[in-house]
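User: I want to check something. If I give you two sequences, will you return the structure for each one separately, not as a complex?

Assistant: Yes, each is folded on its own. Here is the first sequence with its structure:
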Amino acid sequence: MATITVTKISRVNPATNSSHDTTNSLVLPLTFFDLRWVKFHPTERVIFYKLDKDNSSRESFHSLILPKLELSLSAVLRHYLPLAGRLRWDPQDTKPHILVLPNDSVKLIVAESDADFSIISGKGLRPETEIRSLVPEFPVACDSPSVLALQVTLFPNQGFCIGVAAHHSVMDGKTVVRFIKSWAHLCNHETMSLPENLTPFLDRTVINVPASLDAKILEILLYFSEEKEDVRSLKLPPMEKISPEVVRITLELTPENIEKLRERAKKESTRSQLHLSTFVVANAYLWTCLVKTRGGEVDRPVRFMYAADFRNRLDQPVPETYFGNCVFPLGCYGYKAGVFMGEDGFVNSVEIISDSVKGIASNNIEALCELYVDGTKRVKPGTQSGSVAGSNRFGLYTADFGWGKPVNSEIVSIDRNEAFSMSERRDGPGGVEIGLCLKKCEMDLFISLFKNGLDN
């Protein structure tokens, strides 16, 4: 087991911004799209960077690399000011808000690991407890939690990684990745200015949905709350300790794999109007493998969840660089495991997810919210709930802080439920990279199903 030693804990303040009067506070209300995630565990991610011989010593790291990271972090927080704040829910308010006070800051932990960097940053099987130690612990028992925590870990003479823990009600995956890419840009170019495609859009009035939907989502929060008596509590559900039996792997579906699966779906389905995007095909395949891995009774209930981006799906489009959440959870509810466990499991999964994705275009946000609330209330105890985090369109592998692009990136927070992560592949166009955490005995079966299904 690798040893992690904390060498420094600091608070990084946003650089002075003449457009924001530092004697005043900033209040940013949560929107409809933020509210679903108020009781959700933080989004956690780790990005690995290999260093060359000249830069990887302790001396070089602490005298050159760390000061650059800290300086550029302060600079990027000037643009992403809400990340220095905290969540608050005052008695007179109908919903929470982000509050940034003068001198607010972000906690940055600096640590050192004696792990083998090539293994822990690789794609093979790794103990999840070692990956989890690379992201900072997030305060779950706090009624006014901070919204971001960071950890930089050095692997002497090998490389370093950046661990990010962000409150999901403040940023969706696209915003988290844009923040990382913005930080990398300022560090690499030693500037204080961001290009337009990385500059966050902070105006909340662009989220134009009926106000009545806020109440619907706040009502459903009770289903995710440990504190039924205090609906306004911002404490997160307690996080279970990760079993030492849990391992992580990173797999790939190449463009050739995706095309092969697409052709298989066309051949096996009796329907002609399927939506066969990479997202649909990859998720259908992974979900089928996951249900088969669990095995058990064919009548047991299962559901698959994903978050759809609504930046281009509202009546008034939302800017791509919008800061916050503009995703909403959608689900495939009411199915039994047997639908996915037979020879036709993959094509059934393709048809179900295809119908769900096509349904986004034919339903407005009110109807989709109703479907989500109703589906959530009908979930039976013991349901196998699978989900996907991330996207193959975020472009995180372009985040170069000045020492080359990442060698790997992992969404750590998938280790708490049956979720897999999805991103673009590092070393080639098209296809997807998939992260997954399971107990070792389950993982062996999953890998076997995954590889055999592609070979056959």
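And separately, the second sequence with its own structure:
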Amino acid sequence: MNHNVVILGSGPAGMSAAKALVAQGIHPTVIDENGKSGGQIYRQQPDNFTRTKKQLYGFDAKEAEQTLDEWQAIQPHVTYLPHHLVWNAAGNTLYLFDQQRPKYKELHWDSLIIANGATDRILPFSGWTLPGIYTLGAAQIALKNQGCVIGSEIVLAGNGPLLYLLAWQYLKAGANLKAILDYSGFMDQCKATTKLLHAPKVVYKGVYFLTELKRAGVKIVYNARLDSANGDKKVTGIHWHKEGESKASHYIECDSIAFGYGLRSETQIPDLLGCEFYYHEQYRDWLPKLDNQQTTVPGLYLAGDGSGIAGVYAAKLSGEKAANQILSSLNLPVSEHASSAIDKRLGHYTTFSYGLTKAFPFPTTWAANVSDDTVICRCENVTAGDIRATVHNKGAEEMNQLKAHCRSGMGRCQGRVCSTAIHELLAYETNKPIDAVGRIRSQSPLKPIPIIVEEELADEHH
């Protein structure tokens, strides 16, 4: 069959989609920026590392091993392109950079499943750009990929499930956790129980992590608010307060901090390809419109956390569902019973994901309280004060208008790190609803590309 199916991402969603397609005789091309499959949750260690699956994945060791074994089994029927960065997309073409050769490539697709996951959601505090301060996701990568922790006296902060998963993983690795500063309240998590129990296995893990952390004597503070980090050439401590207290009421000495407020979907490529977006109230984010995993662009599907944050089990199911949509479009057999079962289970995980937004609520008062000196866009060194001045002195009322005036979101990350914070601050300062200030338009290159790519492009066009 002359129909080129491409999958972007070889995490749980991408691997699940590939498996379903191969089962029906489709030979997909799978692209991944990383050198090995697995995504973040099943991230594999370098070849010369010898940690066991249990050490790497904990509770998820058996599932991780099974998923990765199934992936290896279909390799003869897949064109796998690791170390390939997608830096642009237009029409039915992906523009790739092979990071090993290095070489520029173009790849045509007839059907495309984007399963490139999510990234940390960041709300900055004063001093957060000091060396020794990481996102929660980066701290987890250090442990999973390189077998190291980020410091000798560590504070973990923010909220979301990753906060406690990472804390438990660091505890098991022998790290010295000075404190966990949870933005959420304990009652927030209790009140969300009904929705969370739609994924009982995940809830059990969370309770276990919390119990083990308390048993080990790790300090856990609820309703904690980060104020500022101390340090000159490196972080030396964190000022914080509890909700209702005055700022900087407390101080913890530390040499490293990891923080984040849940995850946000990676949606730059769907944006470049012309997908229609809508503002999702529960996720507090702009997401592509979907109908059974299909976007408003024919032949383009989303799966995994890139279509909404619901966890690894939902990611696998959505990957399979996206693959089934492609199979149906090609008049290949798809079990109605299996499809109905997938929809039913996805419904449970969607309810669970809404429960997470209640258990770990978004810091809605952040924009009102962030100090003027806090760097919001670190690529361009744009502070909260710069954004406020641009709004009130130049009349900026929309994300791209603000970007044009003060360069917020114009740097190397193209707003991947700072867009949430800019969005919140702009809405607050203009006194507009959060969905009324728009979103940053994605632009190529999505990530920095080496000079060799630019040279090859110049050669091709002259």
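Because they were folded independently, the notes below concern the second chain alone. The radius of gyration is 22 Å. The chain is about 35% helix and 20% strand.
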